[in-house]
Structures are given as C-alpha cells and as structure tokens.
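Most newcomers find our protein records easier to grasp once they have seen one. A learned vocabulary of local backbone shapes supplies the integers on the structure line. An example says more than a description, so a record of this kind follows:
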Amino acid sequence: MADTHKVRFEPVGMEIEADEDETVLDAAFRQGVMLIHGCKEGQCSACKSFLLDGDLQMGRYSTFALPDFERDEGYVLLCRSHIYSDTEIELINYDEDMIRSGLPVVTVQTEVDSLVELTHDISLLRLRLPAGSQSTLRFHPGQYVDITVPGTDEHRSFSMANLSAAEGHLEFIIKRYPGGRFSSLLEDGLAVGDPLRVTGPYGTFTLRVASDRRLVFIGGGAGMAPILSLLRQMAESGNEREAVYYYGARTEDDLIQLAELARLAEQLPSFRFVPCLSDRRPRDWAGETGLVTDVLERQEDNLADCDVYLCGPPPMIDAALPLLEGMGVPEEQIFFDKFTITAAAGGLTDRRRIPVPPMSQDTERCAPMATAENTAPRSFPRIEFTGAEAGLKEFPSSKSRSYSYFTPRKKRATMYEDVTVDVQPDPERHLSQGWIYGFADGKGGYPVDWTVLRSGDWHQFLDPNEEWEQTIYRNNSNVVRQIQLNLENAKKAGAYRDWPMAWVTFLERHLGAWMHAEHGLGMHVFTSEQRSAPTNMINTAIAVNSAHKLRFAQDLALYNLDLSEAGIGFDGAAHKDVWHSDPAWQGVRENVERLTAIGDWAESLFATNVVFESLVGVLFRSHLVMQVAARNGDYVTPTLVGTGEHDHDRDQRYTRALFRMLTRDETHGEYNRDVLQGWLETWLPLSVRAAHELQPIWSQPQEKPATFADSFDAATAGLRGLLSDLNLSEPKGLAR
C-alpha cells in the first residue's frame, strides 16, 4: 500500500491527505475539496499552482500548460502531481467558497433509462442511478461527470441538466458527432438498460448564491445543459434575481427544451429566454436573428453589474469574452465552460470538456489570444524611456519569483513572504540613505526604542499564520457569512424560545459585558500598537489581531440586537450597567482599561495576549460560555463565541512565536527574559484578581456543569504551558 502524506493549501489554510499513487487533484476530489480544474490530464493549466515545500513529482504533461521555465520556478500541475512527503502548495486560481462547498468524487454504475432525439444532432440521455447511490453521488447544479466509453478506458465529460441526483437519475444534453467515440453510440450503440459508468462531480460552473447581481446566461447547442440545471435551481429555491438567457441556434428546428424553458419562465417572473437564429431562412420567424453575440450586443449596453455565465463551443466563447470586456463586465464576474473537439484513434472525433484556466480566483475562463490593435495617432508628444533611462535595474533573479534579497523560510517563498517581507524601508537592511520619512520629534521610520526589548534582527519574525491584508479580509468575511447564516437559521427554527429565563438573563448581562472587553482591546490596545513595532511583519500580525477583536465585538453587538428582537424577554441594554457597576466585572474592566494605557508596545502585547487572554479571556469564553450553553439548550451562542476562540488561538500563535524569538535571541535572550519576567510579575496579579472576581457568575445559569475552580485550573494550565515555552518562570500568584 502506498504511503500517505499531508497536503496543505495556502492561502486558504486547508489540509488533505494524499496517497503516493494518486494525484493531488484526485486526492482533493476524493475528500470533497473542489479545486479549480479543467482537463484533469495536464493539457489546460487550470490547476496550475506553486510548490512551497515538499517532495513532489509530476507525470507527463503538455509544455503548453506548464512551460519549462515555470516548472523551474516551482509551478506544478495538480492533476499530474504525486507527493512523497508532507507538502505545502500555494493555489494560484481558487474560489474559496467553491473549495469549501465541494462534494466527494465517486464512481457509480448507471443504466440507460431513456434516449431521445431532440434535434437532428442533439440527444437527451437519461441515466438511471442504482438504488442507494443517490446519497453517494451528489452534485451542485452546473457540474459535470465523466462517462466511461464502453469497452475502453477513455471517458467523455458531460454536464448534468437536471437538478439533483436525489431525483434518481442523471440527465444530459449531448451533441452527436459523426464517428464520435461516445456520441456516435447515441445513434446506434446504446439501448435502454445498457450499463454506463460515471465518475464525478467535477467543475465550478455553479451559481454564486452570495451575489445579488443580475444574471446573464449565454449558450448554444448542447451547452444548454448546465444552464438549464442552474435555472432549475433558481426556480426550486425561489431565487428572484433578474435573469436573461441568450441561446444561439442555427435554425428554428435546432431550438430545444422550449416547453421546459416556458415552464421555468412561469416560476421565475424576472427571467427572459431570448432564442437567436443565425440562419434566418424561415420567413415566419419573428425572433432575434444573427449570432448570439450580435444579439447580446444589440440588446445590452453596460453589463458591469451582472454575473455572466457562458457555455458552448469555443467560437462562441472566444467571440463573447472580448465583447463582455468591452461591455464593462469585470473578469471575476464571468464564469464559463468551454468545449473542444477531441481527436481519437483512427481519426474519430468527439466533444470533450476543456474548461480553460481561470483569469482570477473567482472565474473559470482564460484570456483571449492576443490580437493586433489599431491605436489612433497621439496628438501630443509622448515621452518614452528605455529601461536604463528610467532607472530599471536587473539582477540574477529580477524576473524570478524567488527574489534574492531575502531567504524564504521554506523551499519557496510563500505569498505572505512576497507581500510582507521588506515591504517597509529600513536602513538596517536595504535603505542605505537612511529613513526617508520621520516623526515630528525627529525619530525616523520605525524606531526600535518604542520597546525596551531588544533583538539581534527584528526581521526574523514571520507570522506563523501568514496573515496579510487579503487573508484577513477574506477570513473575516467568511466568519461573518457563517455567523449570519447560523443566526438566520436559528431565528427560522425558533431556537431561542425554549431557553431558560436564567440563561437569557446570563447572556444579556455577561456576554454583553464581555463585548466591551473585546472592543476595548481591539480599538485601544491592538489598533494603537499596530504601527509601533519595528517591522512590517510584526505590525501586520498585530493589525490582524485588532481586526479579529473588532469583528468579534461587532458580532456580539449584532447578536445582542437579534436577541433583543426575539421576543424572549431579552434586555439589550442590561450589559451597560453590568460593565460599569456589577462588582463581578469591575476587575475585568480595570484590567482592560490599564492595558490601554501601556506605552511600550511589546509590554502591551505581552500583558494582553499572554497574561490577560490566557487567564481571563479563555476562562470566560471557552471554560464558561462554551461549556455551559448547550446544557441550557443553547446551541447558537457557541457557534458565535467559538469564532472568538478560534481568533484567540491564531493570535496566540503569532504572539508565542514573537516572544519565543526574543527569549531565545543569541545576544539579548537573557535580558529579554528578565524584562518579560518583570512584566509577568506586574500584570499577573491584576488578571488573577479579575478572573476570581468573575467567580459569582458561574452559579447563575440554570444548568452549570463546570465549577469555577475547574475552569480556572484549565485556564492556568494553558498559561503554564505558554510560559514554559517562553523559558519564563511561573509566578507564585498563579497557584489555585
């Protein structure tokens, strides 16, 4: 049996396991992780990614998909990649929502249920799923499966036109090609009851339900299948987005599924179907004529606020892409499947799906081939510089991703390192002329004396979470989306109605009070610190910490408003008096307010994340609220508070890495340990007192499975482990 290794995908932070005898892409499919992909055979480059670390080898592939110079840089094709150690890979093209909503790829044996000719060259193939496989094979509307050609190891890919495998069948609209390896069987090679093996689902041509933009569908021929599936999804879910479907056919006899589209139009009041005929020989045709792209151009003006879905043959796609660009559609709002004709042995041909590489993380498309462009003569002089005149300098790796001015932690530089390391100028490294900006008191740039701690090289610190601007925006938005979904479902289910009144009172008073602590730390501790550290890498980590705290405080505030309107007797204003005057909370309040007044950024970070968060934050969030909520019939609050605990885990990870670097500094380690030990002796008693003053609230919920003593022991155990890792001694005041 082949060995199994872990694959970590950045920047999304997901992990899978892959056997040595399967490709990384197949391993992801097997585990329901839907990566952007196309041909799955090393021909199209849709799955191109970057190897950060690990032992990876590729099978045969086309150098059109991966040129040699890109391979030498570290790029790989996931569909051809086998790993032989734990590996880290950076995804270049990805849609995080799609990745996380993936479904496992499975293989099932089906039977031909029916075969109907829709036109002279298009058939409707219906496959019956065996009993029980409906729960095994699942797919999102718009996806496709591979159908194995009987008697061969070859397959052809076709999109489902129906809504769900739960219907007990799969429905395909397939164009028949003369001599096609599979499609020719639709005329005389397949009969009802014949077995066909299908594998899937694949593809990311799915409806982005989070968007509320107008939908424009463009298709032709058998490309109707996935679009029909998406329209059926909209009808079933009651989606009210405005939508129009421009469908191209040659003659009126080539129009298909008209009755079904009329039925969908009745269910979708904001939907229009616009058939377009390229051959207008019938005199009684009153509809649109010309190529579908011509009709689109006549009927539409600016499509900048639309999501556009295209499915059809290459000429239609190739004509539509530059047109859509000219009509203002951003690249990330265009999604499409593209089909090509595959040459088979003996000159036989068939249609085959080759979705082309995405242009950005949210699309499944490729850039059109470069064409000559006529530019009007300029009416004023144009100043041009050569590279040398403009100051351009070249060095051995200037055209390489692996920049020579810093050494990556791993085999390859990560995206985080590329956008974070040495982004700020620093005369200690590359800014030979000194600081180019400063402060009113004469200090320049990022003064190292804004903390008493010392480092031989502050730039050694890299955030183990690898957070930067894009990741924090994306991660926070994902958390907010999940919380909103949970709260909406809770309201629909009436989840709040059965809560004991004692638990309602506990939440209005104490969870509301904790909101003030989170906001105070986010706004007045971390926000003020995030420009004070001597490197961009430290400041970015602190800024992310601030964003975590502010988002969590906002989540608690919005939750407070939701419960106030739930009709359960929840007093949404009670938290203010609790925070200001309840004796149980005055220790926490004093602790937080004193943290906001620290002048040394490192002391502020240490006193907050190492001491206060370990003893008070974890104690309240994890060892009280998370433990007690379910016992009081509340399964909603833990989903919210759990996001705060997840944030804390990530924030403590970078804090631990930073202070471990400082306590182990070859030159200043002993000095730094003495300073930190002094800070610990100063701040620990304040946080211990704040924790103990919270003890009375442990008795207030109706159901209370945890005692304060046990909760405090668990919190202090975590702090002891952290102090040990930092080579700091445990103060006497930490005893139970």
About this structure: The chain has three domains: 4-100, 105-366, 469-734.
